[in-house]
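Notes continue from the previous slide.

Worked example: a multi-chain complex. Inputs as given:
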Amino acid sequence: KAGVTQTPRYLIKTRGQQVTLSCSPISGHRSVSWYQQTPGQGLQFLFEYFSETQRNKGNFPGRFSGRQFSNSRSEMNVSTLELGDSALYLCASSLGDRARSGNTIYFGEGSWLTVV
Amino acid sequence: LAKTTQPVSMDSYEGQEVNITCSHNNIATNDYITWYQQFPSQGPRFIIQGYKTKVTNEVASLFIPADRKSSTLSLPRVSLSDTAVYYCLVAAGNKLTFGGGTRVLVKP
């Protein structure tokens, strides 16, 4: 069974540009969540989608947005990139509605974004 | 809101048992704790998950005391390949809170 797949794995963008990252969850999983990982801030929750609806959102500015499609695939978008947005962006999926009730979250390998 | 803390780092030797504790507060009786292992340039990999007492699988054990103010990941007989960063994740209500990660170095 394939794991969580994220594309692209690496990308470099210029400050002020926008970027879209894609995520394909594990087959059958309906919940997708996104995280930002940086050396200074650790792992931080961005947002979560379940059945195409955003269920929860972390403390990030409105430049960070996402969506989920009917096939459970998800995309996240960051507009007006800043140098501080350089990070590893991780997507994760779970069978049901998140880690509550014991739904295990499985992570992808991440997308490395460098903003120059 | 659960605030989770872990030791920043710990060293061990091959064949030893490694215990990593995650301290958290204000979690309910059915809030789950999950542990992940992360290698450089890779996503976190699931190790074990539970919400009470003790859970064991083929690679680790998870101990959660009755007061639920902490949880301990136990890795029996570590090898060099267990050198990684280990994260605890507390799912409390609608909140997901990660610990800061514990960098484990296994020495020969």
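Summary box: Chain B touches chain A through 22 residues (CB under 8 Å). The mean pLDDT of chain B is 91.
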